[in-house]
Amino acid sequence: MESNEMARAIVLGASALGAGTAMVAGIGPGIGEGFAVGKACESIGRQPESSGAVTRTMFIGCAVAESTGIYGLLVALLLMFANPFIGKL
Amino acid sequence: MQISDFFRGSPDGIDVHGPKVLLSFQVGSLTINLTETIVISWGIILAVTLLLLWLTSGMKTRNISKRQVVAEWIVQTVYDLVESSMGKRWRSFAPYIGALFTFSILGSLISMLGLRSVTADYNAPLAWALVTFVMIHATNIRTNGIGGYLKGYVDPVPVMLPINVLSELSTPVSMSLRHFGNIVSGMVITSLVYFALSVITKSVGVAFMTIGIPAVLSLYFDLFSGFMQAFVFIMLTMAYISNADGRPQEA
């Protein structure tokens, strides 16, 4: 019984660490989207008349670049709210 | 309050759960669950249908009423968007795009009424993404024929076949997960902040932090994120469908 409690605590703690580590995936989209938006601002400054098309394309690109961050987030959410490891004890 | 409550969600702590199952019945060996999501979707469909019936009732060619102007503006906006991003050939897709956008944005914004977002259930974005997936491939087959469609999989060299199949299969997965992840992350972050605010309120005794902060969060996570994801979803749908036939896009 004692060791089961211990195992549970270890799994919970490791899951918390894993959830936090999964969110390191947020770095990539952050850098990438910042870069994309900076370039979009530059091109709008150069050609203000094409701001509509540039903005639309930028949002699409940002959304696609965000995918990896979203996958990291889903892993974190799974570890926090639908932990698959607790049931294996 | 223990640390482990934080992960399981205690009665007075954070509460992140899937949609509630309201009714569940058996058809053969298949269990059909009537969830919150389905009921709220029906509500949205009913509301939109009634609104559109009201907007389009008694249409005239001259001396038009205010609501006819609104109806015409909606239709014109959707058709203009489809034409500007897909080209004139694809005008016939406008009703689908408009319906998808309306359903998606209302499904996300329904959380402003205190109901559960339809899009925070993975089934909803997955269903839309699968419809789009079928449309992409149907368009491809219709324009290139079965032979041309199958040839697209071995396009540069036959070695690319598994990679091409994987990239086709990942389209609906990435589209639906993006929409779902954005909405659900907003939901989780909002409930985490509510939980933290309630803890602060409990320890201080005065609810000074709960004024204003939830409104700002809701503005970003419900309004902006819901609109953005609906927009991105239809833009990606249009891009994929209009690229499916392999012909260069006309301006």
Question: What's the CATH H-level superfamily name of chain A?
Answer: F1F0 ATP synthase subunit C
DSSP summary, beta strand count of chain B: 2
- Tally of separate helices of chain A: 4
Shape estimate of chain A: rod-shaped
Structure write-up:
Chain A has 89 residues and is mainly α. Chain A has a single domain, classed as F1FO ATP Synthase (Up-down Bundle). In chain A, 80% of the residues lie in helices and 0% in strands. Chain A contains 4 helices and no strands. Chain A is rod-shaped and about 70 Å long. The mean pLDDT of chain A is 87. With 251 residues, chain B is mainly alpha-helical. Chain B has one domain. Helices cover 67% and strands 5% of the residues of chain B. Chain B has 7 helices and 2 strands. Chain B has a two-stranded antiparallel ribbon with strand order 1-2. In chain B, strand 1 and strand 2 (30-35) form a beta hairpin. In chain B, helix 5 (123-151) runs antiparallel to helix 6 (161-204). Chain B is globular and about 70 Å long. The model of chain B is unreliable at 1-11 (pLDDT under 50). At the A-B interface, helix 1, helix 3 and helix 4 of A face helix 1, helix 6 and helix 7 of B.
Notable traits:
heterodimer; A: 89 residues; mainly alpha; F1FO ATP Synthase; 4 helices; B: 251 residues; two-stranded antiparallel ribbon; globular
Topology record:
The complex is a heterodimer of chains A (89) and B (251).
Chain A: H1 2-22, H2 27-46, H3 51-65, H4 67-81
Helix pairs in contact in A: 1-4, 2-3
Chain B: H1 3-8, E1 21-27, E2 30-35, H2 36-55, H3 66-86, H4 94-109, H5 123-151, H6 161-204, H7 213-243
Antiparallel strand pairs in B: 1-2
Quick synopsis:
The complex is a heterodimer of chains A (89) and B (251). Chain A is mainly alpha-helical and 89 residues long. Helices cover 80% and strands 0% of the residues of chain A.
